[in-house]
Amino acid sequence: MKELIETIVKPLVDFPEEVQVETIEDDTRITYHLTVNKTDIGKVIGKQGRVAKAIRTVVYAAGSSQQKKIFLEIGE
Could you tell me which SUPFAM superfamilies the record lists for this protein (predicted)? Predict the structure, then answer.
C-alpha cells in the first residue's frame, strides 16, 4: 500500500524525493501518514480537496480486502 501511495503522489509534486509514507498499525486500523515538501502540499490536496479525496478513494478501494480500517493522513 505504501508503494501505491508513493506511485500516485510522486508525479504530482515538484520534490518527489521528499515524499514519505509512514505506516502506523494497531488492532483495528492502519494509518498511512503522507509527508511532502511544504510547497507541494497544495498540489497533493488540490482545489477543494479533490486530489486528496481521489487519492483516498483509490487507497481505500485497494485496502478493502483487509480486515482493518484504513486511513490516509496528509501533512507537511
Answer: Prokaryotic type KH domain (KH-domain type II)
Yes or no: is domain 2-75 CATH 3.40.50.2000?
A: no
Record the cell numbers describing residue 42, joined without a space. 497544495
- The residues that bridge with 71 in the sheet, in sequence order, are 31
Q: Supply the pLDDT for residue 7.
A: 95
Q: Which residue from 3, 7, 5 is spatially nearest to 60, judged by alpha carbons? A: 5
* DSSP at 66: S
Q: Which helix (H) or strand (E) holds 32?
A: strand 29-35
Residue 66 has a pLDDT of 82
Residue ranges in the chain whose pLDDT is less than 70: none
CA-wise closest residue to 76 among 39, 38, 49: 38
Domain boundaries, the chain: 2-75
